[in-house]
Amino acid sequence: MVGNTIGLLGPLIFGADNLIDYNSSQTVHALKFLQGWSSLGVFVLPSLLFAYLSNINLGFHQISRQQFVLTVSIMFLAMPLINFLSFWNESLHLPSLLQPLENWMRHAEAQAMLITEAFLKVDSWLGLLINVLIIALIPAFGEELLFRGLIQKGLFKSWGNIHLAIWLSAFLFSALHLQFLGFIPRFLIGGLLGYLFFWSGSIWLPILAHFVNNATAVLLSFMINKGVINKELEEIGTQAEQGPMLFICLLSLGLLLYLIKQISVKV
């Protein structure tokens, strides 16, 4: 409530009269201000406060250089696979009986995409840094504290089954985004982040992976807006002729996951 209340000052600060006019720079600035404070209020501060009051160890342990390099490499290798799964997820349809629900989900997704596109439409370095902060850094830190540091660890402590804890946390992680057409890839990413946390015992590893995933999307959008790279790079992995590349990425991803597991267990 405190975070959202502060965030709602955005329209006053930036002089935004209409919060659905995404072509207005004042509106976009106000929405980014709201988004940042909302993320702090919903994810970061409650997680830290709960961990402090409950004396929970969130796992702020140092990671090795090998873990850092492997985690970054894993997320880059996973991107074509994530794009493929996103493309496949968007093509799925609910049974005809649930057509009204699917129509609502697709409408909500379209509205969310409009906001996302408005956020990413920047061509200045300051705009890029703000987007990295709002879209990558704060969500990566806050969401990993909540879903991996608190929920996954709490479920594991209660049930004693780490795989169930990881995948249920991943389900909640994907569902809470309310972006149904990307549910499956986000669910699998959540599982990956959960295993990185379990293997290493350090919350910094899933935070790093989450940040790399989000920050790469922000950086690619920025470079496309600047005309530095082709827009098709965002869609790598979605073309039928890219099957062999996806297979190689999958094998390489499996190898790197095996390596990081072995390295992390010994840390």
Description:
This protein is an all-alpha fold. The protein contains ten helices and no strands. The chain is globular.
Tag the structure with descriptive keywords.
267 residues; mainly alpha; 2 domains; 10 helices; 76% helix; 0% strand; globular
- Indicate the percent of residues in helices: over 70%
What class do helices, strands and sheet pairing give? Answer: mainly alpha
Count of β-strands: 0
Biggest beta sheet attributes: none
The string of secondary-structure elements, in order, is HHHHHHHHHH
The total count of helices amounts to 10
What's the quick description here?
The chain is 76% helix and 0% strand. It has 267 residues and is mainly alpha-helical. The N and C termini lie far apart (40 Å).
List the helices and strands and how they pair.
Blueprint: H1 2-7, H2 10-14, H3 25-54, H4 65-90, H5 99-120, H6 125-159, H7 162-175, H8 183-200, H9 204-225, H10 243-266
Helix pairs in contact: 3-6, 4-8, 4-9, 4-10, 6-7, 6-9, 7-8, 8-9
